[in-house]
Amino acid sequence: MGLIPKEAPSAEELAARGIGVEKVRARNSDGTLKADDPSTPNVNEAWEEKPVAKKRGRPAKKKD
């Protein structure tokens, strides 16, 4: 019984769960920045999208 691979959630699903998407620089396995491949003009390999949870702030204190 193997695991079923899941697709990446869409932007609408992430927004409904309170998670935003942020673009970050892509990195190689050794941690260096990945370059863009000029042979693929419609895809930018140097950037990737990363889900980011929206930060919740602490409620303001009430002054007496």
Task: Give keywords.
64 residues, mainly beta, 9% helix, single chain, elongated
Short description:
Helix content is 9%, strand content 22%.
Question: Any overview of this molecule?
Answer:
- The chain is mainly beta and 64 residues long.
- It has a domain at 20-53.
- Helices cover 9% and strands 22% of the residues.
- It has one helix and two strands.
- It has one helix at 11-16; strands at 19-25, 47-53.
- The chain has a two-stranded antiparallel sheet with strand order 1-2.
Distance between the termini: 61 Å
Extended strand count: 2
* Global geometry: elongated
Approximately what portion of the residues adopt beta-strand conformation?
15-25%
Strand order of the largest sheet: 1-2
Overall mean pLDDT: 80
Helix content: under 10%
Helix count, per DSSP?
Answer: 1
What kind of sheet is the major sheet?
2 strands, antiparallel
Reading the helices and strands in chain order gives HEE
Rg over alpha carbons: 18 Å
- The unreliable regions are none
Which secondary-structure class do the elements indicate? mainly beta
